[in-house]
Amino acid sequence: MAKHGLTQEEIAALFAQARQGEQKPEAAAFPDLNPEGSAQGDPSPLGLLADVELELTVELGQSRRSLREILAMGPGSVLELDKHAGEAVDLLVNGQLVARGEVVVIGENYGIRITELINPEGSAGR
């Protein structure tokens, strides 16, 4: 071995050893996709993800308060939000705004009627 690295002969010997152990790559075999575009027959390109559960959150409004104000809160405290009564609420999926809508009552539960979809770039659609 040379003082500061490998000699040309040592490098050539290493390359020769590497070539002896080389394996030829083989083409991978994949099943053909059906005409709908998925192996399971689901016509939707998102078919494989259809059963993934996501967190939906409806945001009525927001407010910014000091720690002092938050610590002073108790039962009966009223907190004013940044939205007006009757204004659309935000629907978030995993924390991302996807739609806006109006609050509705369904039996004894609240719900949301979608009035506007938000595209991924953040502008309103439909």
TrEMBL record:
It comes from the Bacteria. One of its GO terms (molecular function) is cytoskeletal motor activity. The keyword Phosphoprotein does not apply. Gene3D superfamilies: SpoA-like (2.30.330.10). It holds the Pfam family FliMN_C. One of its GO terms (cellular component) is bacterial-type flagellum basal body. Residues 49-118 form the Flagellar motor switch protein FliN-like C-terminal domain. Its main location: membrane. GO terms for biological process: bacterial-type flagellum-dependent cell motility; chemotaxis. Residues 17-45 are annotated as: Disordered. It is a peripheral membrane protein. Keywords: Cell membrane, Cell projection, Chemotaxis, Cilium, Flagellar rotation, Flagellum, Membrane. It is found in: Cell membrane. Belongs to the FliN/MopA/SpaO family. This is Flagellar motor switch protein. It comes from Symbiobacterium thermophilum (strain DSM 24528 / JCM 14929 / IAM 14863 / T). The gene is fliY.
